[in-house]
Amino acid sequence: MAVKAVLFDIDGTLVDSNDFHVAAWQEVFRGIGATFDDQTVHDQIGKGADMLVPTLLPDLDEAEHQKLGSAQGAIFKDRFIDRVKPFPGAHDLLARVRDDGIRVVLASSASAEQRDHYVDLLDARVLISKTTTADDVENTKPAPDIFAVALGKLDGVSADEVLVIGDTPYDIEAARKSGIATIAVRSGKFTDQALRAAGAIKLYDDVAALLDDYDASPIAAASATVEPR
What we know:
Strands 3-2-1-4-5-6 form a 6-stranded parallel sheet. It has 2 domains: about 150 residues, Rossmann fold, CATH 3.40.50; about 70 residues. It has 10 helices and 6 strands, in the order E-H-H-H-H-H-E-H-E-H-E-H-E-H-E-H. By secondary structure, the chain is α/β, with parallel strands linked by helices.
C-alpha cells in the first residue's frame, strides 16, 4: 500500500540534541544527589520524563517525575536549546517527502515551545502537515500515544499507509504498537543491535544518508503512486 504520510521524530533524528538532553538531565540528577554515567542516561533519551525518571529512579512518585521533568526542560531551554543544530539534509528530506505528495508530520513529545523552535530552525513551516507535542498525550514513548495521536490527525490515513523515521528504540517500539513501520537513523547514537531488536525495517547513518538513498528507500514506493497535493 502506498505511503501517504511520514511521521518524523525530531530530537536525535532531525536535530542534533540528544547529548544536550543528557547534559540537562545530569544536572537535574546531580541536584537531587543521584549519580548515573552518561551512557545510562543516554540510553533513556527518547522517553519523556514520565517514562525516563521511573526507569532510573523507581522509588519516586508521579509528582516528583513531573518536578524533575520540568526542571530538565527549564535547564535545556536556558542552557542548551540555542546550541542545537539541524542535521545536514534534514530540511531537504522534509522537502523531498512533501514534494512527492506525502504528508510530513512532526510526531514528537517535545513541548510546544520546543516544537516551534525546531520548526523554525529547520525552516520547515511550509513543509509540515501536522505536529504533535507532549500536550497531546498522557504517556510518552515507548507508549504508542504520540503516533496514535498523529495518525488520528490524518483523516483517512491508516497505519499501513504511514512510515516513522526515528533514532531511538522507543520510537520504533511506540510505532510498532501503533501498527506503523519505522526507518531508523543512527544519529541518536543508539546501537544497530538495539534499533534492529526494536524492529526497524531499515537503518541509515542519518537523514542525509536516507536522502541520498531516497529512490531505493522504503519511502520511495510512494512516489509513483501518491498524487501530489
